[in-house]
Amino acid sequence: MKKLLFLITLVALTSCNVLKEFDTTGFTIQGNTVSYNNVPMAELEGLEFAYDNRKLVKELTFKVLETADNNKINNLIAFLHEKHPEYEIEVEIPFEHIEKYKN
Description:
About 30% of the residues lie in helices and about 35% in strands. It contains 3 helices and 5 strands; from the N terminus they run αββββαβα. The chain has helices at about 1-15, 75-85, 100, and strands spanning about 25-30, 35, 40-50, 55-65, 90. It is globular. It starts with a helix and ends with a helix.
């Protein structure tokens, strides 16, 4: 039983560290705008509250700007999670820019 509990704890701890592999250097927040190396990358679009899986959930939704570096989306999410760990983070890519992000 102790081994099972240890394995469950280990899996839970390692699954929480998924975003640690992404470098958040160069990201800053000013007002509702997130920038990467002083270039605006995303803007806060909304705050959502939901009841999901028997829990109340808070979510910040950011809209990616046209100037954004598509290779930094995961880094952006990691940065926002560092700044707002109590929120789920959602990043929206406008449909007109979706081709830029298909990889």
